[in-house]
Amino acid sequence: MISEHLPALQVVVPLLGSLLAALVRRGNLAWLIAFVVCWTMPVISMALLNQVLATGPISYALGGWEPPVGIEYRVDLVSAFLMVLVSIMAALVMSYAPRSLASEIAPERQSWYYSMLLICLAGLLGMTITGDAFNVFVFMEVSSLATYVMIALGRDRRALLSAYQYLIVGTIGATFYVIGVGLLFAMTGTLNMVDIANRIVEVETSRPAIAALAFLTVGIGLKLALFPLHLWLPNAYAFAPSVATAFLASTATKVAVYLMLRIMFSIFGAAMVFGQFRAGEILLVLSVLAMLAPSIVAIFQANVKRMLAYSSVAQIGYITLGIALANQTGLTGGISHIFNHALIKGCLFLAVGCIVYSAGIVKISDMAGIGRKMPLTMSAFVIAGLGLIGVPGTAGFVSKYYLIAGALEKGMWWLAAIIVISSLLAVLYIGRIVEVAWFREPDERLNDIRTVPPEMAAVTWLLAGAVIWFGFVTDITAGVAGQAAQALLAGYP
């Protein structure tokens, strides 16, 4: 039955789609192939999530070799939750893509671009579903190589330099990761994550175990742009095509956070990482710095994409803060913020993409009065901005509520205060956009703007509606995140 092979199809379908998109060499036809593929993936991922909720984790052996000898695809609640997020965001971005991409990419490159996006999607889903530590590295490189191309094809010449910077940093991060995996293999003699977790107990106090955790954390930290390892991200987001920025901001860093969860909780275990190694204290400091420093830098940015990029670094700090708290309430907030921030930042970057399509501007000073010229687009931007701040009634509030509650459970009232302060910093940089867009006289250059295509406006508003919807309906986000947090913290006091 085809349902038995759904884990493999998560990777095979987008890979085959990328090959077809490259072969057709026509932008519209390549988009149609990518569109069908991307809307197939949520169906598969939701079926896997329902199966996990009904029967528990799924183990899928590749090549007829049973784990731990062979490569295993393993789906549990955390990975299924993330696969649903990645596949839904890919489907929405692809629905938005055709005219946005056509305005920023030359016709002869569009089919290649769709091919690269599908390869990136396959790599991200592969990183999420594989149960083999080295296989994670393979999929990491697959997605990264596609990402470098997606960024380099931006119409600004600085996109090429940004892609090169990302390539250097990404290669360093991958090298750190594979060194960590090599140390784990030397200690345990296996690459299967479940098997490593069972065997590492025997060597948990050894220096190679500490070194392995350090290498893996730094490598993944570079990939997820954990402060201060984030310097590649602002330029990558600022100069990539709008479609790529929205897709990567919604998915790539979220998958890297998932890997950190998997390494710390599933392989090493919370007791070892947060108890014996006391890594939570280091992660807590880095998370607090991430919440504050990039938010301050965002306030002074002239480019709206760079502003949102620095904001992403700050929001990653909230997610890692939930990990650092290492209690169920805080971890629930961190995991739910993976989902909520993907919706919020996806909406913000898609709204900016509408502005780029219609007016061709990204400088904040050039957006004077644009709210009067593009009221629907800027209203969606404001709604997502309120979610970024964490205003009650938005998805961002739910995440921050759990994080504050988790901090207070541990007696860290000062940490709760820092969460509030960092949210107030978001008020400043989002408020700056609102003031320029709505309260200034329209710039003359905005008199000849193009009408936003209906599919671009519809997807942007769909995400804006989701930001509000998930601010009230929390079963899917906080509910599933709570179950995932409970599973990750099993056996940890």
Fold and architecture overview:
It is a single chain. The chain is mainly α and 493 residues long. It has 2 domains: 277 residues, no CATH class; 203 residues, no CATH class. The chain contains 20 helices and 2 strands. It has a two-stranded antiparallel sheet with strand order 1-2. Helix 3 packs parallel to helix 14. The longest helix has 32 residues. The chain is globular and about 70 Å long. The mean pLDDT is 85.
Write the topology of this structure.
Elements: H1 6-24, H2 27-55, E1 58-61, E2 72-75, H3 77-104, H4 107-129, H5 133-152, H6 158-188, H7 193-199, H8 207-223, H9 233-239, H10 242-268, H11 270-276, H12 279-299, H13 304-325, H14 328-359, H15 370-373, H16 375-389, H17 395-409, H18 413-439, H19 454-472, H20 475-488
Antiparallel strand pairs: 1-2
Helix pairs in contact: 1-2, 1-4, 2-3, 2-4, 3-4, 3-10, 3-14, 3-19, 4-5, 4-10, 5-6, 6-8, 6-9, 8-10, 9-10, 9-13, 10-11, 10-13, 10-14, 12-13, 12-18, 13-14, 13-17, 13-18, 14-16, 14-17, 14-19, 14-20, 16-18, 16-19, 17-18, 17-19
Keywords:
493 residues; two-stranded antiparallel sheet; 2 strands
Compact summary:
The chain has 20 helices and 2 strands. The protein is mostly helical.
